[in-house]
């Protein structure tokens, strides 16, 4: 069957794209010869719905995964023929269907077919056998749904629905007025794309798939602090926030200077915006220089001071014997920091914090970033005006923002690594730009975070546990598409990570597909990982018990996400210092332009290297077989003397 | 930010180098080639790499010879020598005079371009040298002898811009040369034999060899043996050449066994308004096609050599920022500035013309005729690109070098003018060849397994085009080369022809090994389907940015991929060898794998073109990090926090 048009083609062009992967994992259950319901049953045959760490269970799960993989491999061939089938995830159900709908593909033109809405996705399949066209979009990705045309609309395809997505694309469907199908589809889409606005629950709480790995176990705050050698003489673990009473957007467990008392904490948190006082992010294994994070001090127009806060900062500085100085990196542009004084915030005055040096990093706020991404989407989707490409990229400022964030992180790395000086990072509330900066500088400083699991820990720690407001920034299940709290802050971070992987192609265990998968599920609402705004909310909602972690999904199929170039054994650079010049910063086309079939989004170098690695493996296997054969011959000849 | 400090060229932030005189050991002194003579010398000169704060200036002796500008310093490069390309003809800090493009006198606040032929009488403290391959560096004479700066400047202004071809160093170079290995490197296409073989290899019917231009009697710009439609008689050609610019009538360069040929020709002379002559020849071309298909004509008037040069100059500005301030202001609107150079749109145009030609030939079996004013610039470029797209042979190293011989060197691309080996009124400088190499580089990015040659090879080729030792890129046409080699012009002694393809004249095996692309798959024989639009093109960082040492990624960048691939391929070869041992087939093992592992830990982003040994120790660069007023006062709106 030829599939010349549409999104599956897009997905097919890159076997790494999540849609396809999705598709495969869904087919798995079908290929076991059971429908979606029985897939559920199959899931329930394992000992418990949630994840046990007991060894017997995990082996069983591993075994079943292997089985599944086999089944998958065996039916890979069939997959191509079975693509017409709508495949459902465990827990997914069809909620509505409309025939005679036309998908208006901006690249290949209109295609007529069947549109299905489930509680997880929108699924369109072209009816034309020769021109099969499949679109599959998780509804979490949808930001806005609009009706196009009214009763008076004439013209072909003038009446229908337009869907605006968070992942850099829009979709348009045309309905026949006489079918009255638009209304149902629109309603279903609304309900399941914005369940929170319609008093429904997010799909993550209905999704039932079982994975061999338990992603919720990836991050264990105390284990991570122990990895960095805390407790030690200078830093201690505290559970003062166990019930989220000191700071409701901070995690239950943090590390603070060993000398700081609970009383200090009680006071210092009142002088920092939202109670977000300075706590440990990372500690240098040799010099003991640290990266700490917090929110802005509540200085206000009057220039208020807080002795306890000043003392506390001094403690952080003293915890590093190598330096008699401390750097405070304020992520904001100077003007913004000053403007914040009017609202009770502000920045540390050098009078009050005598040994501290204050640096502004000029990173703009969430509103500027949102606008920049909007322009970028305009540039990349649906069609690219080639003649205006470069100046268009320039005018979005997107790369400039990326550069600025990277440059800020490099400055932190420079201070910590080369000057052995501790750095305190904050912005206004310390959950957007601060998270970008601490996470990026930690990624540059510590090779652990460049492994797949280490990166998951980094995201869990610096982003999720420290209260980056994913719910607000992404708007999961919420219909208010123009909400001013939405902003692509986490996307920017992942873009920066991608930029670093481009500059250091063999320093990361994971590949680009891993990053794109994370971004896809940032929106999809299939996994519980990115839901809600803080650890407190997630624990209230019992997210670990009631949903599946994204890391369960990724860690059960690690081979998909491995970077073939990763040279873990070659004793590589501990510290990476990317060049934060725009001359090295590129537009991430494999993400931003992936829906456009005219864009090359695959990396042919990686493909070729994968081929070579396969060849190598074959040779190794041949050599082993040969050895075995030889040994067998040897034993045989020894056993039977002539 | 301190604007003043940022503006000053070298260096309030650098330690003042001590004044004590340096003594060079014999091994550190400038080495001379046989036939090379010293023009002038200056002691105690400082050499600066622009921008960087991590590199201290080098102290050394500066020498201008008839071949090069040489800087000998006491710097210890030994420990670093594996990380850069070593050239037998030049020292680490030497540049061939032919490479020098512009010379500027630097003042406190401004720079002044020194004009060739000018004679400087005042004192010169500092010079900025900008080369044709975008290398740039600064020389300070403040510690040198009183007149040093002036003498060096005058020597350069005279010797780097020769007015006559015979003044080029190739004529003085006395080193004996026997080109025994050359036959393995390329077909030169200088004689009938190679053309005959090419016609046979492509198996293209309907065309024949003509000796009408024997002894260059019909056209000095054409080769002696040309391939023309079978139905065209020599007398028709004799008549026809009179009507074409450069006397460049339609000639065959390549074809397929189905009969689609690739043909090049110039425009008719501007004085001729009647296109009958041209049509007659096109009719012969049609008849030579087995299906008598009318040829598809592609007009290549744009970009003109002038457009390309203008674009190149703007691109060069982006690649040679002299001060941190310039660097930052360029960085601030880099993509806009890049757009304004139009360089990538020229690349895009050339690639899409070649793609058009290739598609016509491959899918529709059309003969394609490329037509351009003089027939010697864009014709060379698009013709050779088309062949690379269609014919896997030209993607091997041997094939690629043969292709450049065939479509550029002997087909009369005026290299002497375009590379500005000599300076005279009617010389129009234009890096058409660089534009070609850039196009090839783009193809290499899109099809890394299709090419036997590497990015490093392409960059080295551009560098080598400016070495006045090799004849390959020294002449405007084959006739000129022939005259020089026989000593027929101006009764000069015959020139020894040394081909640039004899890479062993310049490099060690170790460096030559890097010319091979480890990702090459010799079974990749399909035609390429390049994406030619701007969004799918990239800036050739290795070639253009390598002299901005601040941009060098410490222990990162593409070399990491490259070296890993080499390691992997060696490993595979080794394993094949081991298993072949069993089966009795022999695969030759090349080199030591461990060497690559070792290099990965040492090399930086511009390997093997990094001369920035300082990076090994201090990877953090402040020029790019210090707060920038441009950034904070940006055009961005300050929304409410």
Automatic annotation (TrEMBL), chain A:
Residues 1-57 are annotated as: Disordered. Keywords: Coiled coil, Cytoplasm, Hydrolase, Lipid metabolism, Membrane. The active site is at 427 (phosphocysteine intermediate). This is phosphatidylinositol-3,5-bisphosphate 3-phosphatase. The lineage of its organism: Eukaryota, Metazoa, Ecdysozoa, Arthropoda, Hexapoda. It holds the Pfam family GRAM. CDD domains: PTP-MTM1-like. It is a peripheral membrane protein. One of its GO terms (molecular function) is phosphatidylinositol-3-phosphate phosphatase activity. Residues 14-27 have a biased composition (Basic and acidic residues). Residues 45-57 have a biased composition (Low complexity). Residues 609-636 form a coiled coil. Belongs to the protein-tyrosine phosphatase family. Non-receptor class myotubularin subfamily. Its EC number is 3.1.3.95. It comes from the Eukaryota. InterPro entries: GRAM (IPR004182), Myotubularin (IPR030564), Myotubularin-like_Pase_dom (IPR010569), PH-like_dom_sf (IPR011993), Prot-tyrosine_phosphatase-like (IPR029021), Tyr_Pase_AS (IPR016130), Tyr_Pase_cat (IPR003595).
From TrEMBL, chain B:
One of its GO terms (cellular component) is membrane. One of its GO terms (biological process) is phosphatidylinositol dephosphorylation. It comes from the Eukaryota. CDD domains: PTP-MTMR10-like. Residues 189-544 form the Myotubularin phosphatase domain. It holds the Pfam family Myotub-related. Belongs to the protein-tyrosine phosphatase family. Non-receptor class myotubularin subfamily. This is Myotubularin phosphatase domain-containing protein. It comes from Ceutorhynchus assimilis.
């Amino acid at each position: 069957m030829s599939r010349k048009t549409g999104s599956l083609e897009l997905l097919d062009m890159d076997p790494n794209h999540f849609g396809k992967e999705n598709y495969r994992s869904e087919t798995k259950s079908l290929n076991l010869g059971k429908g979606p319901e029985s897939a559920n049953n199959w899931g329930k045959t394992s000992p418990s719905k949630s994840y046990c760490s007991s060894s017997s269970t995990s082996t069983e799960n591993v075994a079943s995964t292997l089985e599944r993989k086999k089944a998958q491999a065996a039916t890979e061939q069939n997959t191509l023929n079975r693509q017409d089938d709508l495949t459902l995830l465990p827990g997914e159900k069809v909620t509505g269907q409309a025939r005679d709908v036309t998908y208006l593909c901006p690249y290949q033109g209109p295609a007529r077919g069947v549109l299905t809405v489930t509680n997880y996705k929108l699924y369109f399949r072209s009816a034309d056998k020769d021109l099969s066209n499949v679109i599959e979009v998780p509804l979490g990705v949808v930001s806005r749904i609009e009706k196009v045309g009214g009763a008076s609309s004439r013209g072909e395809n003038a009446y229908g629905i337009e869907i605006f997505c968070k992942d850099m694309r829009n979709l348009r469907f045309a309905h026949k007025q006489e079918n009255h199908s638009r209304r149902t589809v629109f309603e279903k889409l609304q309900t399941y794309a914005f369940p929170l606005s319609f008093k429904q629950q997010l799909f993550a709480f209905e999704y039932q798939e079982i994975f061999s790995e338990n992603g919720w176990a990836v991050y264990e705050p105390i284990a991570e602090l122990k990895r960095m050698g805390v407790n030690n003489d200078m830093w201690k673990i505290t559970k003062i926030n166990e019930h989220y009473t000191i700071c409701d957007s901070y995690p239950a467990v943090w590390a603070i200077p060993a000398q700081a008392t609970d009383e200090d904490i009680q006071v210092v948190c009142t002088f920092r915006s939202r109670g977000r006082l300075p706590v440990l992010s990372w500690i240098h294994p040799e010099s003991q220089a640290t990266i700490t994070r917090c929110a802005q001090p509540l200085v206000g127009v009057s220039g208020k001071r807080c002795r306890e806060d000043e003392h506390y900062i001094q403690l952080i500085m003293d915890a590093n014997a190598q330096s008699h100085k401390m750097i405070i990196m304020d992520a904001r542009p100077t003007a913004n920091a000053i403007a914040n004084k009017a609202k009770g915030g502000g920045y540390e005055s050098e009078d009050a914090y005598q040994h501290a040096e204050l640096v502004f990093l000029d990173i703009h706020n969430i509103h500027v970033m949102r606008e920049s991404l909007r322009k970028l989407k305009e540039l990349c989707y649906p069609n690219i005006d080639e003649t205006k490409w470069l100046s268009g990229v320039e005018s979005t400022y997107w790369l400039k923002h990326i550069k600025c964030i990277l440059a800020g992180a490099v400055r932190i790395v420079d201070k910590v690594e080369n000057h052995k000086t501790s750095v305190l990072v904050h912005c206004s509330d310390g959950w957007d730009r601060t998270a970008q900066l601490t996470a990026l500088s930690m990624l540059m400083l510590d090779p652990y975070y460049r492994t797949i699991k280490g990166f998951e820990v980094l995201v869990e720690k610096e982003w999720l546990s420290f209260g980056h407001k994913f719910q607000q920034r992404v708007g999961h299940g919420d219909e208010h598409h123009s909400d001013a709290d939405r902003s692509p802050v986490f996307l920017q971070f992942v873009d920066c990570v991608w930029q670093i992987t481009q500059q250091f192609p063999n320093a990361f265990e994971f590949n680009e597909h891993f990053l794109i998968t994370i971004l896809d599920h940032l929106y999809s609402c299939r996994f519980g990982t990115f839901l809600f705004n803080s650890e407190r909310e997630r624990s209230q909602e019992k997210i670990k018990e009631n949903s599946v972690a994204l890391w369960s999904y990724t860690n059960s199929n690690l081979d998909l996400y491995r970077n073939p170039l990763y040279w873990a054994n070659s004793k590589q650079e501990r510290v990476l210092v990317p060049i934060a010049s725009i001359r090295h910063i590129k537009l991430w086309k494999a993400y931003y332009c992936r829906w456009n079939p005219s864009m090359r989004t695959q990396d042919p170098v990686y493909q070729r290297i994968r081929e070579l690695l396969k060849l190598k493996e074959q040779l190794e296997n041949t050599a082993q077989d040969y050895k075995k054969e030889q040994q067998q011959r040897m034993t045989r000849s020894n056993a039977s003397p002539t | 930010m301190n604007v003043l400090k940022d503006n000053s060229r070298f260096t309030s932030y650098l330690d003042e180098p001590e004044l004590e005189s340096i003594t060079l050991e014999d091994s550190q002194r400038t080495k001379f080639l046989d036939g090379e003579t010293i023009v002038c010398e200056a002691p105690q000169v400082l050499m600066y790499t622009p921008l960087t704060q991590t590199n201290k200036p080098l102290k050394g002796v500066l020498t201008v010879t008839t071949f090069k500008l040489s800087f000998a310093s006491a710097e210890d490069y030994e420990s670093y020598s594996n990380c850069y390309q070593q050239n037998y003809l030049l020292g680490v800090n030497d540049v061939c005079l032919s490479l020098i493009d512009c010379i500027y006198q630097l003042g406190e606040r401004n720079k002044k371009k020194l004009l060739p032929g000018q004679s400087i009488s005042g004192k010169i403290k500092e010079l900025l040298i900008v080369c044709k391959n975008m290398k740039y560096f600064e020389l300070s004479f403040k510690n040198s002898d009183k007149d040093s700066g002036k003498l060096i400047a005058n020597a350069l202004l005279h010797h780097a811009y020769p007015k006559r071809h015979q003044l080029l160093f190739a004529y003085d170079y006395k080193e004996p040369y026997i080109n025994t290995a050359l036959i393995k490197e390329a077909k030169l296409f200088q004689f009938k034999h190679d053309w005959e073989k090419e016609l046979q290899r492509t198996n293209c019917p309907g065309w024949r060899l003509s000796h009408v231009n024997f002894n260059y009697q019909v056209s000095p710009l054409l080769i002696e043996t040309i391939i023309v439609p079978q139905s065209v008689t020599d007398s028709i050609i004799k008549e026809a050449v009179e009507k074409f610019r450069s006397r460049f009538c339609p000639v065959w360069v390549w074809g397929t066994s189905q009969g689609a040929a690739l043909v090049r020709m110039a425009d008719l002379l501007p004085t001729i308004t009647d296109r009958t002559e041209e049509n007659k020849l096109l009719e012969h071309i049609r008849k030579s096609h087995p299906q008598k298909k009318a040829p598809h004509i592609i007009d290549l008037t744009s970009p003109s050599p002038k457009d390309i040069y203008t674009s190149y100059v703007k691109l060069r500005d982006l690649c040679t920022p002299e001060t941190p301030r310039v660097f930052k202001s360029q960085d601030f609107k880099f993509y806009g500035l890049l757009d304004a150079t139009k360089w990538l749109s020229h690349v895009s145009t050339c690639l899409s013309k070649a793609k058009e030609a290739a598609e016509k030939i491959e899918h529709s079996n059309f003969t394609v005729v490329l037509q351009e004013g003089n027939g010697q610039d864009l014709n060379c470029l698009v013709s050779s690109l088309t062949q690379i797209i269609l014919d896997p042979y030209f993607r091997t190293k041997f094939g690629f070098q043969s292709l450049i011989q065939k479509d550029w060197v002997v087909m009369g691309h005026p290299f002497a003018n375009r590379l500005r080996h000599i300076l005279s009124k009617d010389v129009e400088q234009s890096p058409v060849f660089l534009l070609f190499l850039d196009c090839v580089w783009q193809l290499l990015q899109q099809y890394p397994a299709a090419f036997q040659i590497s990015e490093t090879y392409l960059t080295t080729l551009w560098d080598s085009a400016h070495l006045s030792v090799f004849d390959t890129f020294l002449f405007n046409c084959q006739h000129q080369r022939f005259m020089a080699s026989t000593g027929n012009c101006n009764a000069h002694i015959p020139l020894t022809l040394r081909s640039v393809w004899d890479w062993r004249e310049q490099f060690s095996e170790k460096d030559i090994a890097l010319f091979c692309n480890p990702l090459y798959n010799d079974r990749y024989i399909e035609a390429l389907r390049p994406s030619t639009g701007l969004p799918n093109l990239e800036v050739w960082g290795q070639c253009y940015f390598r002299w901005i040492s601040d941009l060098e990624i410490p222990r990162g960048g593409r070399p990491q991929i490259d070296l890993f691939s080499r390691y992997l391929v060696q490993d595979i070869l080794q394993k094949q060898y081991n298993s072949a041992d069993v089966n009795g087939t022999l695969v030759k093992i090349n080199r030591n794998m461990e060497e690559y592992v070792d290099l990965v830990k040492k090399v930086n982003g511009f390997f093997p073109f990094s001369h920035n040994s300082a990076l090994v120790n201090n990877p953090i660069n402040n020029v790019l990090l210090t707060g920038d007023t441009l950034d904070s006062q940006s055009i961005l709106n300050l929304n409410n926090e």
